[in-house]
Design brief:
The complex is a heterodimer of chains A (about 170) and B (about 150).
Chain A lengths: L2 H24 L2 H18 L9 H19 L2 H5 L16 H5 L2 H13 L2 H12 L4 H8 L3 H22 L1
Chain B lengths: L6 H8 L5 H9 L1 H23 L7 H33 L4 H18 L21 H17 L1
Classes of the chains: A mainly alpha (about 170), B mainly alpha (about 150).
Chain lengths: ~170, ~150
């Protein structure tokens, strides 16, 4: 990554993706934004240093996942105290997403409920493997676990998600 | 031809955990291939929702209220148990004073026997003596006796 333009390119390529990833892992858009800001701050600090990674995409993903874990460890009090602020509310009616067009609202609600009921590790594995579309080996490297462990968590996640959805459809 | 795979085996295959036999069966069984397509469609639906639908807010206050209710109920339960143990239980199962005095006397005998050095019961010094217990029942009896004897004299 060379200079400001390189950093901007990195942000353009990964900012939205990481915000989505963190929002999925944390279930809170505001917290997700904070984590992504921290991730890019680290990237800016590292950009030309000796420790700069070769694969920025993988590095950003790994740092974002770790950042989400740290956030979860902080505890419930800061999140409980946070209120719904005016600036968080949408100013206009949002256009329907591709998912809105393809899948009914009720099914989407069940999917979110089932996804949020998954244990943290299963959620991480499922998001990285399917939403981020990373190969199993890269998921394992990002989470710092073996490929076998990733596959087992993925199987449990798939099983639980389908069980929950299958029972309601 | 081997038997068709269970739903769980299909899910294992989706997670790259299928063994050689299961993979071979999936490659040639039309029925299992159709079920696998259905599984893939389910996963695509989930992925599409997670990837593009707006992330719904978690109502953390509602969750916190639920926990607060559970904590309150637990505290009330603990308080009730404590009250039963400290107050109610002792009132119901109060040990009579006479029985307590007998027990202490019996324990004093046992301890005297155990700690005797020459086979005889140890001599009880005045300082070590178990203080005489005031037993209400006996006192009442003595008072009555005294009253009777006083009345006779």
């Amino acid at each position: 990554m060379e200079g400001w333009s390189g950093y901007e390119g990195l942000a353009d390529a990964h900012y939205g993706r990481l915000r989505r990833l963190c929002a999925l892992l944390l279930g809170d858009r505001e917290e997700a934004n904070e984590v992504v800001q921290e991730v890019f701050l680290k990237a800016w600090t590292l950009r030309n240093g000796a420790g700069a990674p070769n694969d920025w995409g993988a590095w950003l993903t790994r740092v974002a996942v770790n950042g989400c874990r740290d956030r979860r460890r902080v505890g419930w009090w800061p999140r409980f105290r946070r209120s719904d602020r005016v600036e968080d509310l949408p100013l206009r009616v949002q256009e329907p997403s591709p998912a809105d067009l393809a899948i009914g609202a009720e099914i989407q609600r069940h999917i979110w409920e089932a996804f949020r009921a998954l244990p943290t590790r299963q959620r991480e594995v499922f998001v990285l493997r399917y939403v981020e579309d990373l190969p199993t080996a890269q998921v394992a490297a990002t989470l710092g676990v073996s490929e076998g462990s990733v596959k087992r968590h993925l199987f449990r996640a798939i099983h639980r998600l389908r069980q929950t959805l299958g029972g309601r459809r | 031809m081997s038997r068709c795979l269970s739903e769980e085996a299909l899910e294992r295959a989706a997670a790259e955990l299928a063994d050689d036999n299961e993979r071979a069966h999936l490659a040639m069984c039309v029925a299992c291939a159709a079920r696998r397509r259905r599984l893939t469609a389910d996963l695509a639906q989930i992925t599409l929702t997670l990837a593009s639908a707006p992330v719904p807010r978690v109502d953390r206050r509602r969750a916190a209220r639920r926990w607060a209710a559970i904590a309150t109920a637990s505290a009330i339960a603990a308080g009730t148990i404590l009250w039963v143990e400290v107050v109610a239980w002792r009132v119901v199962h109060r040990m009579p004073d006479a029985a307590q005095a007998e027990q202490i006397a019996a324990l004093a005998d046992v301890s005297t026997t155990l700690f005797s050095l020459d086979g005889e019961p140890a001599r009880v010094h005045e300082d070590d003596a178990v203080p005489a217990l005031q037993v209400d029942d006996d006192d009442e009896g003595l008072d009555e006796d005294h009253a009777e004897s006083g009345g006779a004299s």
